[in-house]
Design goal:
The chain has 366 residues and is α/β, with parallel strands linked by helices. A hairpin with a 2-residue loop joins strand 6 and strand 7. The protein contains 14 helices and 16 strands. Helix 5 packs across helix 6. The chain has a domain of 254 residues: Rossmann fold. The strands form 3 sheets. Strands 2, 3, 4, 5, 10, 14, 15 and 16 form an 8-stranded mixed beta sheet that branches. Strands 1, 6, 7, 8 and 9 form a 5-stranded antiparallel beta sheet that branches. 39% of the residues lie in helices and 23% in strands. The structure holds S-adenosyl-L-homocysteine. S-adenosyl-L-homocysteine binds next to helix 2 and helix 4.
């Protein structure tokens, strides 16, 4: 297979400036202004490269809508609130959430100002279309407001949702060798992209604290971009009030290991093989995110698996209710989706995906 246009560009960059770190490689592969994976395509669904929970079933977005409604009541039912989604994909989750909100709490629907943080022009278009259709009378005439990043979100209380967003943010990888940690790099071997190591170790101040016990070759990941986004979100929530719900695949506790993976057409591929044409992700460390929230004095309301979270919030009665009004084929599809979202076998979605909910203390009703 010929190389991708982005592979050619990254090789030129490396020839000119030398090897790049893994975070830079991820940022280019996903967000390059012309050839970045998310910039050029809609990667979701059966015809795309991967499928996400809201694309599996409307129940997922509806449950998240109900979580948001609950948080809004805890905030004292303000007449104006920002509902923020990070990386909304096709907009399916938000459309389902707004429909559920409109049904149970029209006053919340009327209070919402919708903010979408999205870099992909292709997906922004998809979001505009689906949300224009989904907006009920209470939201009529109020378009979502798009942002490139969280820096431009307006002041004021907000409820934030992010499903499969943090896994797409660039991470650094450090490799242990002879008592030191070295940045993992992407360089060229025989003119092909290949992993390597920086000759100099990272300064002791940046080295992970497990230096003394790690074996040679051990890899740890440092989610610099994700940590910055989390810190920024938590600052806003601490200052203006509100809550955030983060769902992604990853681990509840910090662990070592290389979790960088690439997916194309629903199969794993070599992360260096087709930059710009395969999705590139890492597992999210929820311990790191929760620690950032705790440092910002936020309350950790939920830290659980997706299966635990969805069961707790009532996905089973919701499925039963939907099935009552469904054809036998639809009822079978609902049962399958329920099983897929909540299956907590070791490598299944319900256990692989984790949920973190944080909120500003003092906004909770006693
Ligand atoms: N939440 C959706 C889509 C997940 S895919 C769902 O569950 O179906 C990741 C989403 O994050 C896409 O919308 C992608 O365009 C967006 N994204 C990726 N990197 C981003 C970045 N750095 N800033 C803003 N959005 C980003």
């Amino acid at each position: 297979m010929s190389e991708t246009p982005l592979a050619r560009e990254i090789k030129d960059l490396i020839r000119h400036d030398g090897p790049i770190d893994v975070a830079r490689y991820m940022a280019l592969a996903l967000g390059h202004p012309r050839h970045g994976y998310y910039i050029t395509r809609d990667p979701l669904g059966a015809a795309g490269d991967f499928i996400t929970a809201p694309e599996i079933s409307q129940m997922f977005g509806e449950i998240l809508g109900l979580w948001a409604a609950h948080r809004w009541m805890i905030l004292g039912s303000p007449t104006h609130i920002g509902l923020v989604e990070l990386g909304p994909g096709r907009g399916t989750l938000m459309a389902d959430a707004l429909r559920a909100i409109g049904k149970v709490l029209p006053a919340f629907a009327a209070a919402i100002e919708l903010h979408l943080v999205e870099t992909s022009p292709t997906l922004r278009k998809a979001q505009a279309t689906i949300l224009a259709e989904a907006r009920g009378p209470s939201l009529a005439g109020r378009s979502p407001i798009w942002h490139d990043d969280i820096a431009t979100l307006p002041d004021g209380p907000s409820i934030v949702i992010a499903n499969e967003f943090f896994d797409a943010l660039p991470v650094h990888q450090l490799v242990h060798r002879s008592g030191h940690w070295h940045e993992r790099l992407v360089g060229l071997v025989d003119d092909e992209l290949a992993f390597g190591l920086a000759a100099e170790p990272v300064p002791a101040s940046q080295a992970p604290s497990l230096s003394n016990t790690a074996l040679d070759g051990t890899i740890v990941e440092y989610p610099e971009a994700g940590s910055q986004v989390m810190a920024g979100l938590c600052d806003r929530i601490a200052r203006f009030g509100g809550a955030a719900l983060i769902i992604d695949y990853g681990h509840l506790e910090f662990g070592v290991g290389d979790t960088l993976q690439a997916m194309a057409a629903h199969a794993f591929v070599d992360p260096l093989a087709r930059p710009g044409e395969a999705d590139l992700t890492t597992h999210v460390c929820f311990e790191t995110l929760a620690r950032i929230a705790a440092d910002k004095r936020l309350a950790i309301d939920i830290l659980a698996t997706q299966a635990q979270f969805l069961n707790e919030l009532g996905i089973r009665p919701m499925a039963a209710n939907l099935s009552r009004h469904a054809t036998p084929e639809q009822a079978e599809a609902i049962a399958k989706a329920l099983e897929r979202l909540t299956d907590d076998a070791p490598r299944a979605m319900g256990s692989l995906f984790k949920v973190l909910a944080v909120s500003a203390p003092g906004t909770q009703r006693s």
